[in-house]
Amino acid sequence: MKIDLKAAQEAVELITGGWRAQCLHTALKMGIPDHIAAGRTTDSALADATGAKEEGVHRLMRLLVAMGVFDGDGQRGYRNTALSGVLLDEPDSLRNMCLLYGEEFYTAWGHAHEAISTVSAGFEIAYGEPLYRYLSHDDDVNERFQLAMKAGNLFFDHVPEAIDFAGKTFADVGGGIGQLTAAILAAVPDAHGTLLDREHVVPVAAANIGAGVGLDRVELVGGNMFEAVPQGKDIYLLCRVLAGWSDDEVVKVFRNCREAMPDSSSRLVILERVVVDEDSTVLPALWDLHLLMTNGGRHRTLERFTGMLDRAGLDVERVAALPSETTAVIAAPRATG
């Protein structure tokens, strides 16, 4: 059989993809982008700064230069590129995402065959307990997880461009540490928000929002979205909190939001990655499988969301595209009677 050399090369690129990710993770674990930014740019200087052997540094950097992560060489000095620039140890960088994905989540993906075969969480197979329970007692991993999620939400600043919050009240249901709430309040001076999340999350959200836009236009509420949501708001936001729950559980949240709406002018806004079954691009399909590996969850199609909203008495009004392959699904309460 005559082998297709182009296809073989593409196969090798896929097969070795995990190696590349682990080399990038290693560079961040060693703090190499930050050392280079601080002027430690040669193989010998990086070896001294990291405590690694110079040969190992040189071989790692040779690959990362070839991958476009860095420029230069080990004798005259390396330089950060735009790619390594977003991996520096700075607020909102992707560094913590790389560290989390290269350790705990990489371990979870090591159980992909069993997870996919049984439709169960690879993380729970690897660690013996669900992700969120694990995070509740491992402060180091939980901090990396929260920072990774924060860094991955690159679309937050664009939400007020898709949704009109002017002069309105909104509830950020399952709002976590309050990054989305803060982004909306910063962009819309006359908006007022309420953030609902678990009791132990509320103090973290208060500190985060307080350090940014302040707490004068926001109320922080500890609670459970499956039991009740804040009453009487103009807009109810569900941002990346649905993927780990079953359809029936999500419909319950939708119903809680519908029942809390004061009138027909209120809207429910779902902010999620939406998958398609035909002509899918790689990243949404990959994120969907990643959810299976981490918490046993899934991304849904627009059609599936539409059917679930219908069960809760809500109709899709419009759909808006946001950065990072995120979709805003805006739903209105269905008239009764």
Sheet with most strands: strand arrangement: 5-4-3-6-7-9-8
Architecture per CATH nomenclature, i.e. the level-2 architecture of the largest domain:
3-Layer(aba) Sandwich
Helix content class? 40-55%
Roughly what fraction of the amino acids lie in strands? 15-25%
**Which residue ranges are poorly predicted, with pLDDT under 50 across at least 5 consecutive positions?**
none
What is the CATH class name of the largest domain?
Answer: Alpha Beta
Question: What multimeric state do the chains show?
Answer: single chain
Largest pleated sheet: 7 strands, mixed
CATH topology of the largest domain: Rossmann fold
Counted by DSSP, the helix tally is 18
Question: Distance between the terminal alpha carbons, to the nearest Å?
Answer: 70 Å
Structure class? alpha/beta
Number of domains: 3
Q: How many strands appear in the DSSP assignment?
A: 9
Keywords:
alpha/beta; Arc Repressor Mutant, subunit A; Rossmann fold; 3 domains; 7-stranded mixed sheet; two-stranded antiparallel ribbon; 18 helices; 15% strand; globular
